[in-house]
Design goal:
The chain contains ten helices and twelve strands. It is an alpha/beta fold and about 325 residues long. It has two domains: about 150 residues, Response regulator (Rossmann fold), CATH 3.40.50.2300; about 140 residues, 3-Layer(aba) Sandwich (Rossmann fold).
Length: about 325
């Protein structure tokens, strides 16, 4: 499986001074983490880690959530600027609509760290650094794992159950997934459905897909973008009498981040793979980067985490990290 390089450099040496005077240290510094929704266990994992790691460094991290509402996030960012937070860490609801708020932050001299989800290309001057994975690479790694799962099959009728499609994150994962599988003639992507990162919605959509394609021989694969969503798919499959596994006639389920749901299902043979998008790692590295920024140290423009597929072959290696 491919791995990305840790801390791949697109632009290096950007320092805090580009967004205003460097702080002397991290003590009593106030950080606003403006995110989507901590009802999502993955986002909650990032937020909880940032709070804990920030506190250990003398920082106060305040988590503000927009509930996947771009207008609400815009207002939260404006409020944080007015309240003179030292750093804004932002996990964008929407890659495009966040641009005006980031522009206001830059004008106010407040440094911005983009966390996990990228913004629209061409606006790199609006943030100091990005911390997270290459989303398209998560899609590619998932597709490569799937190619192993279907190598003895003649067909792979595939449905994608996606995170919120207005975000750049799912769009890029789908791009990487499709590009990797484009040359495999047995793979046919027949549906892409937006489940907004939600387990119950994923379960409902999966049930509908099973009914829709039953007369055509059923689905061979579902790519559920996150492990909580894959859990919903597996629940729907069990309720519908759809067998799970890699043998002919069974449904293959793959995902592209890691949660306890995925670890448990991989161990049970109900899910083929997930990937090493680990929220506690993202939260920890985000705070480490913010600490460097506040201490006037140079930080890389893009800090990319390494990515690896998680299957039954290496599930125990990542079980602890993916249980949060």
């Amino acid at each position: 499986m491919k791995k990305t390089m840790v801390g791949a450099l697109l632009v290096a040496g950007l320092v805090a001074g580009a967004f205003g005077p460097a702080a002397a240290d991290t003590q009593n510094k106030r950080i606003a983490f403006v995110a989507t929704s901590t009802k999502n266990p993955f986002i909650a994992g990032i937020a909880n880690t940032m709070e804990k790691e920030g506190q250990a460094r003398g920082m106060k991290v305040t988590v503000l959530t927009a509930g996947y509402d771009a207008a609400a996030q815009d207002q939260l960012i404006s409020d944080a600027i007015a309240q003179k937070y030292d750093v804004l860490a932002i996990l964008p609801v929407n890659a495009h609509t966040v641009i005006p708020a980031l522009t206001r932050a830059k004008q106010a001299g407040v440094p911005v760290v983009i966390v996990n989800s990228p913004i629209e290309p061409g606006h790199e001057d609006l943030y100091v650094t990005f911390v997270g994975e290459r989303q398209e690479e998560l899609g590619r790694v998932t597709a490569e794992a799937l190619e192993q799962a279907i190598k003895n099959r003649k067909t792979a009728r595939t449905a994608i159950i996606s995170g919120t499609l207005s975000e750049a994150t799912p769009q890029l994962r789908i791009q990487g997934f499709k590009e990797t599988l484009a040359k495999d003639p047995k793979v046919e992507i027949v549906a892409t459905e937006d489940a907004h990162w939600d387990m119950a919605t994923s379960e409902r959509i999966a049930g509908q897909l099973f009914a829709r394609y039953a007369a055509q021989g059923g689905l061979d694969v579902i790519y559920a973008m996150a492990d909580n969503m894959a859990h919903g798919v597996i629940q729907a499959a069990q309720a519908s009498g759809v067998p799970l596994g890699t043998a002919d006639g069974k449904l293959i389920v793959v995902a592209s981040n890691c949660m306890k749901f995925g670890i448990d299902h991989i161990r049970a043979g109900q899910q083929y793979s997930t990937a090493t998008q680990i929220p506690t790692r993202t939260g920890r590295v985000s705070i480490e980067t913010i600490a460097d920024l506040l201490n006037g140290k140079p930080v890389q423009k893009h800090i990319y985490m390494p990515i690896e597929a998680i299957t039954s072959a290496n599930v125990e290696k990542y079980a602890q990290a993916c249980t949060f």
